[in-house]
Amino acid sequence: MTENKIPFNKPSIAGKEIEYIIEAVRGGHASGDGPFTRKCQHLLEKSLGIPKALLTTSCTHALEMSALLLDIRPGDEVIVPSFTFVTTVNAFILRGAHPVFIDIRPDTLNMDETLLEDLISPKTKAVVPVHYAGVGCEMQQICEIAKRHGVHVVEDNAHGLFGSKNGKWLGTFGTMATLSFHETKNFICGEGGALLINDPKFIERAEIVREKGTDRSRFFRGQVDKYTWVDLGSSYLLSDLLAAYLYAQLEEREKILGIRKRIFDYYDKNLRDWAEAADVRLPIVPDSCGQSYHMFYMLLPSMEKRQAMIEHLKNKSIWSVFHYLPLHISPMGRGFGYGEGDIPVTEDISERLLRLPFYNELTPEMQSEICGEIIKASSSW
Ligand SMILES: *Cc1c(COP(=O)(O)O)cnc(C)c1O
After folding, report:
1. pLDDT digits over 286-302, tens only?
2. What is the phi/psi pair of residue 321, to 5°?
3. CA-CA to 280 of 20 to 30 Å: which in 120, 148, 157, 211?
4. What is the CATH number of domain 253-380?
5. Which atom of ligand 1 lies closest to the CA of 184?
6. pTM of the model
């Protein structure tokens, strides 16, 4: 038995990554906003049909930028799912906001839009839907409710680049949206992200916030003859060496999405009948969603069965993982007054969800073995 035979994730090369990185190193522009950054931003703007995309050091930092741009201040409330990665909420807590956790729908595991309106208060500044697994949230309802109350929508689209809802790209619904190019995501450069700006009135200030609070971007365009400190800000530019890596990935987006679709479909087809018989729930993708094929998960009947499944697979050197530990019952979440039972669907789902290995080099033979072991593991239930 080889160690780490089938890892959970593995970054892979899709096209001209190495070539472009060498070009970027030789080209002599290693810091941010070089030629590859511009190419990536242009590609994102054109393919999504949005006014501005800005590469950032991470999705976390793009979320932090959104909090700065929306002027989130102490006492403001931000509505976020408890079932998400910690930075979806931390970015706003850093500005002094109070998190208001919203439960998820049992089908897509996305923000339950039917609970949204009751959670909005006069202090609410933003609502942050996460397109879980790259399957779109009910954006029409979410945006309508938010608009009615004068609340901004920031889409955390770390999973869903090139996914769509009702024919519209994910990341193009809210005031802003964020992307991640961390090595565990669909399109990668190691660490990286982007802020997508759909409301043009935020573009100028976004460039300033991203450039340490200076008007350096305007200076480079020749609009001012010196650059200076004009606002709050930080250092959110991605190195152009990483943008070179990313550009090669984005160029191959059709190929990458095609591979990931094949992987998803294989699991779905080969586990469907078993899942039905074993009381296991596989992903539900509504017809209105063009998914980005970010992950494949299963909902097992109980936490004990999930643990047994993880153990069985691990003994065969197949690595499966679970997430998210609900944020509202984490030590930080409890500090905001939350406790067990407050967000029930999230608490139930997070105990039973298991993610299967999912990366571009996963072959049908490997998937066949994974599916075989999953079925074997359940025979002792
Ligand atoms: C990965 C992820 C992030 C953070 O992305 P980074 O680029 O690592 O900062 C944020 N939100 C969600 C939903 C994620 O999955």
Report:
1. 999 999 999 999 999 99
2. -135, 160
3. 157
4. 3.90.1150.10
5. 1
6. 0.97
